Amino acid sequence: MSVTENRSLARRLLEEVVNTGAVERLPEFLASDCRNPHTGAQGLAWFREHVLTFHECYPDLVVTVDGQVAEEDIVVTWWTMQGTHSGDWGGVRPT
């Protein structure tokens, strides 16, 4: 993929999957063996559950892409997330 396609893919993951909760579309955006470098979780299931949990806790969740930088096959995206905290999140009660 080109740098432009990679940047678009990263943006669309947030806009078309994370914002909508359309987790059935994850295979369009992530490799089946994707890995979370912070937790070591591997495969699409962890990302699916992460998105669904966010939507349970923040039912009006909206992620807005603020900017991106890309080079070759690496894309860095910074974003803002807004929503009403109405469900428990990692032991934190709704605010």
What are the main properties of this structure?
95 residues; alpha+beta; 2 strands; 32% helix; 2 helices; globular; two-stranded antiparallel sheet; 20% strand
Verbal overview:
The protein has 95 residues and is α+β, with helices and mostly antiparallel strands. It is 32% helix and 20% strand. It contains two helices and two strands; from the N terminus they run ααββ. Strands 1-2 form a two-stranded antiparallel sheet. Strand 1 (62-71) and strand 2 (74-82) form a beta hairpin. The termini are far apart.
Q: Mind describing the biggest β-sheet? A: 2 strands, antiparallel
Percent of sequence in beta strands: 15-25%
The counted number of beta strands is 2
- Give the ordered list of helices and strands: HHEE
Proportion in helices: 25-40%
**Average pLDDT value?**
94
Report how far the terminal alpha carbons are from each other. 42 Å
Overall, the morphology is globular
Structural class: alpha+beta
* Contiguous runs where pLDDT drops below 50 for at least 5 residues: none
